[in-house]
Amino acid sequence: MLEASQVPAVEQRHGDANSVVVVPVILSGGSGSRLWPVSRASFPKQLWPLISDKTMLQETALRGVGAGFAAPVIVCNQEHRFLIAEQLREAGIEGARIVLEPVGRNSAPALAAAALLVAEDMPNAVLWMMAADSAITKPEALAEAVATAVTAARSGRIVTFGMKPTRPETGYGYIEAGAPLDGLPGVNALEAFIEKPDAATAATLVASGTHLWNSGMYVFTAETLLEEMQLYAPEVLSAVRRAVESRATDLDFIRLQPEAFASAPDISIDYAVAERTSRAAVVAADLGWSDVGSWEALWEISPKDATGNVGIGDVFLEHTTNCYVRSDGIVTAVTGLQDAIVVVTEDAVLVTHRDRAQDVKKVVERLRGAGRHEAVAHNRSYRPWGFYESLIQGDRFQVKRIVVKQGEQLSLQKHFHRAEHWIVVAGVALVTHDGKQTMVRENESIYLPLGCEHRLENPGRILLTLIEVQSGAYLGEDDIIRIEDVYNRQ
């Protein structure tokens, strides 16, 4: 992460007319399907610890906290809100504003929402926009690049970071850097954006010396972005402004007005503003950056053994070279392979050549087309109170393991099509059932007949773990009628 001493050009004195407040804006809306089966829509790559013991979201948020910047603004899918809030708390990040997108509309509407919210109190604040799922391995270089970009942003520029290419990569877009800008050392005009090229074009671009990888990170003031959006993307700004003005506060979250936000065009900040504005600039940097967009990219940035292998989890490798092998569950043995990727989860296995890592997205599309839940969800489903996972499922019955955190409770609910039998295996459960309350301890059980209004709560000091046996004609998760819920879920 950045240390405050590493950003000497950026002063953080609130209230001084000559000072600048830097607000990190983190976009966390992707599903990361090319990192399937670990990354799935219900629990995407930014919520996983893929490059350290912290999740990628935590790594990203801590870059700004370490530099002494303002609390971040997180724009995310509303389905991930409790996971993100919990991960920020675990990382010790306080005061973050979590903005919930009712529907995905790409980066331009998301950034417009963040800029409008920040501009209400600090129109001259500098926004540092980052994706939640990128890796940066050279923090000192990042500190210098951010300080340079902040200076340019304060002069009215919309600044992006161009990564100095290390290879002719076809998975990234490119930026053509123009002439240096007067009075802004280390900042160049931005001549053009170039879409992801084929291999031959990528080689030519890298050899030119004037082309950089497009990192997707931007720095600008809230005022500058809103001015340029009014000029080049007024329909985006108008829709998002209505969504922000009619927002609601829900617990720790900011809910944008759904109909207004949904009316915004689905467009990236590149297409909406950056490719059209006359204020675009680029800071070239070598940050050890990767968008971690594939298993091949993750192999590239991960520490390797003497034979070029990355082994994570319960794995055994024999006569194997330059492979990425990960197991989040059962023991995994690999022998006689080279340049391969093997990823094992509880309910899926991926095996591919590293050169075909981009094709994983096609596999996910096929799984979606076949209606397979493995395409979008893990066997373990996380909730604000804990998690549950299916152990056995058959005709008219299902067995689940449910884990409830200390002091948390499920909604008061009932089911039309199933009965439930709860057996406590660890901790103590306080069960509300049809207006009565019963304490259920280890090795005790309780039966909840069809139609019973019930709630599960953990009043103890350790995790509550129980086995739930469901029986009935229909066992889908949509057979839940919530009567009361402390988390305001529908």
Any overview of this molecule?
There is one protein chain. The protein has 490 residues and is of the alpha+beta class. It folds into 3 domains: 4-290, Spore Coat Polysaccharide Biosynthesis Protein SpsA, Chain A; 307-369, no CATH class; 380-484, Sandwich (Jelly Rolls), CATH 2.60.120.10. It has 11 helices and 28 strands. A hairpin with a 7-residue loop joins strand 7 (174-180) and strand 8. The longest helix is centred in the first third of the chain and has 16 residues, at 139-154. It is globular, with a radius of gyration of 25 Å. It starts with 21 loop residues before the first strand and ends in a 6-residue tail after the last strand.
Dominant shape:
globular
Indicate the low-confidence ranges by residue numbers.
1-18
Which fold does the CATH topology of the largest domain refer to?
Answer: Spore Coat Polysaccharide Biosynthesis Protein SpsA, Chain A
Number of strands: 28
What is the straight-line distance between the termini? Answer: 38 Å
Q: At CATH's second level, what is the architecture of the largest domain?
A: Alpha-Beta Complex
Structural class: alpha+beta
> What is the helix content?
10-25%
Percent strand? 25-35%
* Biggest sheet overview: 6 strands, antiparallel
Radius of gyration: 25 Å
Give the CATH level 1 class of the largest domain: Alpha Beta
User: Number of DSSP helices?
Assistant: 11
Count of the domains: 3
The strands making up the biggest β-sheet line up spatially as 18-19-20-27-22-25
Instruction: Give the CATH H-level superfamily of the largest domain.
Output: Spore Coat Polysaccharide Biosynthesis Protein SpsA, Chain A
